[in-house]
Design a protein that fits this description.
By secondary structure, this protein is an alpha/beta fold. It has three domains: about 5-290, Rossmann fold (3-Layer(aba) Sandwich), CATH 3.40.50; about 330-500, Thiamin diphosphate (ThDP)-binding fold, Pyr/PP domains (Rossmann fold); about 510-660, Rossmann fold (3-Layer(aba) Sandwich), CATH 3.40.50. Helices cover about 40% and strands about 15% of the residues. The protein contains 26 helices and 22 strands. α13 links the parallel β5 (about 260-265) and β6. The longest helix has 22 residues, at about 25-45.
């Protein structure tokens, strides 16, 4: 790990970002180089988002040199993974030794860490709305005069519908004091797509435009500020001059939305960045500053594969101590098997088209997109559009597969309702990163999808116990006449040699994975293997035999199998890596309530699920242990309940929710 005292003396000398205000250009350039070296050395050890932070080093220095984000101004990072240089410079360099590890520093902004962080965020397209909210709250209050709310948004995030909604609304306030910094690097995780990206590219490549904008900037700087009336005249004069430049097409878009446009400028030129912030500091209107940066600058610059530096994996030393979710884990990843079978389906049926939203790499589809571009579409960071597009294709006779992370599907909830469910459109939704996701933490945990989809009519919900069952479920969903959501976790499934035999099953049919008469665990998804491990330990140490049911479906439930288990066993547990509220266990409890005879007086149903709180970052094994959902804690809980029930012949509450709050 980096030693700031010996290897990075300039970083060590920074006690407060205010020191940057007094540094000259040479000092800031040297500090920028040191920050890049520090981040590369740190993040390649712990793992984390690398490219975004490396691209905004000079921008971060200029922002901190020209604004006061601790006491007066507010900075909102869009997505949040651009914030590593900001963390270094706001007193958190020492925290990088524990970056994204349990109990350590978050990989995203977090107000609990520092007063310099405004909001805890990990999704894209939200920053402009938040910054505008601060500006409106301050507007017209004398005590807040001169405060600036600054949003830094990447060109990939600008494709989000919310970003356009905020620009559309923000431009109507001609005297609202906030700044949008468009960090244009032509990248999200993958290269940006769409008409807006192409438009930005044309502006980005115009050196002629840059030279003339600099001349205009210098001319305006020489005119003294002599009151609000003259300020407004100057702004309108500058605005009109920009508009008559033929190549200034980019600015016209934002100017027509009501923003004062400044740029494009070199996002790695500290002097130009500081000049831009100073030139617009006095303006009392919405301002958009367009800066052009290179994502991943300073790391593998000679490698043309641009996605290689988006994120770095943790070192082998950290991987060696990562805990497995269950002992059989270690087979192919669910993501890779999903992507392979999606392409297989596309080969078999030319009606198949896979749609994803700026996540070709994350969903494993990059290779398919290269080989079958007509059947694999990346719509950019626009989940709402992805769902609407897939629905339209389904209604027109195609067989769409919509591949979106569980946490990102929340952004398209209205489309899931109005377009997919209401129309009963046969779209297969494949939800990667279902469950706890490890180092990305609370913003990315996919633990709400069962509850927000289960309430929608026409939807069917499935979760495979392993990658072999994922293939079976995709084949079934391909033939189904309505919308289907298949959730699967990040990481590997059970090793092929450890997987249970794969037999054909019908729609809504659960699997009895093991028989026993003393209790039953009804598991959803890969936690079936956790349940089987607990079963073995209970038999070895307590001499009791448990049944294990692989539910497969959260909707429709296999009511016959589950009701039989509830009536036959004194104790039944449900097990899932999802929030307890509204999840799979809730569905089982609702079923029991509709059939009161299934739970006699001395029967006990316990829901083992994620408690009602956000779970912080750390490896998945530690996350599960913190809330009582690792194999050791589940074994202890099951053994405790069984001992109580079998000793007394009765139990505590008929229905209980287990799990503890994370510490």
């Amino acid at each position: 790990m980096p030693d700031t005292k010996s290897s990075f003396p300039l970083i060590e000398s920074i006690d407060s970002p205010d020191q940057l205000k007094d540094m000259d250009r040479e000092q800031l350039v040297a500090l920028a180089a040191e920050i890049r070296g520090f981040i590369i050395k740190s993040v390649t050890h712990t793992g984390g988002h690398l490219g975004a932070g490396l691209g905004v080093v000079e921008l971060t220095l200029a922002l901190l040199a020209e604004f006061n984000f601790n006491e007066r101004d507010k900075l909102i990072w869009d997505v949040g993974h651009q914030c590593y240089p900001y963390k270094v410079l706001s007193g958190r360099a020492g925290g990088f030794a524990s970056l994204r590890q349990w109990g350590g520093m978050s990989g995203f902004p977090d107000p609990a860490e520092s007063p310099y962080d405004t909001v805890k965020t990990g999704h894209g397209g939200t920053s402009i709305s938040t910054a505008m909210g601060f500006a409106l709250a301050w507007h017209g209050r004398s005590e807040d005069e001169g405060r600036k709310a600054v949003a830094v948004i990447g060109d990939g995030s600008l494709q989000e519908g919310q970003a356009f909604e905020a620009l559309n609304h923000g431009g109507t306030f001609k005297d609202l004091n906030f700044v949008v910094v468009l960090n244009d690097n032509n990248m999200g995780i993958s290269p940006s797509v769409g008409a807006m990206s192409a438009h930005l590219s044309r502006a980005r490549s115009s050196t002629w435009l840059n030279q003339r904008l600099r001349s205009l900037q210098r001319a305006i700087k020489r005119i003294p500020r002599v009151g609000e009336e003259v300020e407004d005249v100057l702004q309108r004069w500058y605005h009109s001059l920009q508009g008559i430049i033929p190549q200034h097409a980019m600015g016209i878009v934002f100017e027509e939305l009501g923003f004062f446009y400044y740029g494009p400028i070199d996002g790695h030129d500290i002097d130009a960045l500081r000049a831009a912030f100073r030139a617009t500091q006095w303006m009392k209107r919405p301002v958009l500053i367009h800066v052009v940066t290179q994502k991943g600058r300073g790391y593998k610059d000679d490698i043309p594969e641009t996605t290689c530096y988006h994120a770095a994996p943790p070192s082998k030393a950290l991987k060696a101590v990562t805990r497995k979710a269950y002992p059989e884990q270690g087979g192919p990843s669910f993501t890779s098997v999903f992507a392979e079978h999606a392409e297989t389906l596309a080969e078999r049926d030319d009606r198949v088209v896979v749609v994803t939203a700026a996540m070709l790499e994350g969903t494993g589809l990059a290779a398919m997109q290269q080989r079958r571009p007509q059947q694999c579409l990346d719509v950019g960071m626009a989940e709402q559009h992805a769902v609407g597009l897939a629905t339209g294709m389904a209604l027109a006779g195609r067989k769409p597969i919509c591949a979106i992370y569980s946490t990102f599907l929340q952004r398209a909830y209205d489309q899931m309702f109005q377009e997919a469910a209401l129309q009963n459109a046969p779209v297969m939704f494949c939800l990667d990163r279902g469950g706890l996701v490890g180092a990305d933490g609370a913003t990315h945990n996919g633990v709400f999808d069962i509850s927000f989809l289960r309430c929608l009519p026409n939807f069917s919900l499935m979760a495979p116990r392993d990658t072999g069952e994922l293939v079976q479920m995709m084949d079934m969903a391909h033939e189904h006449a309505g919308p289907v959501a298949i959730r699967f976790p990040r990481g590997s499934g059970a090793r092929p040699e450890e997987q249970l035999a794969h037999r054909d099953f019908s729609w809504g049919q659960a699997e009895v994975a093991a028989e026993g008469g003393d209790a039953c665990i009804i598991a959803y998804g890969p936690m079936t293997y956790t349940a089987l491990h607990v079963r073995r330990r209970i038999e070895e140490q307590n001499g009791l035999k448990l049944s294990v049911i692989n539910a497969r479906f959260a909707k429709p439930l296999d009511e016959e199998t589950i009701l039989e288990a509830l009536s036959r066993h004194a104790v039944v547990f449900t097990l899932e890596d999802h929030a307890a509220a509204g999840g799979f266990g809730s569905a089982v409890a609702e079923l029991a309530s509709r059939h009161p005879g299934s739970l006699r007086e001395n029967r006990h149903l316990e829901i083992l699920a994620i408690p009602d709180r956000f779970i912080d970052h750390g490896d998945t094994g530690l996350q599960l242990a913190s809330i009582g959902l690792d194999t050791d804690a589940i074994f202890a809980r099951v053994a405790e309940i069984l001992e109580t029930v079998h000793r007394s012949g009765t139990s505590a509450p008929v229905v209980a929710v287990a799990g503890r709050s994370a510490s």
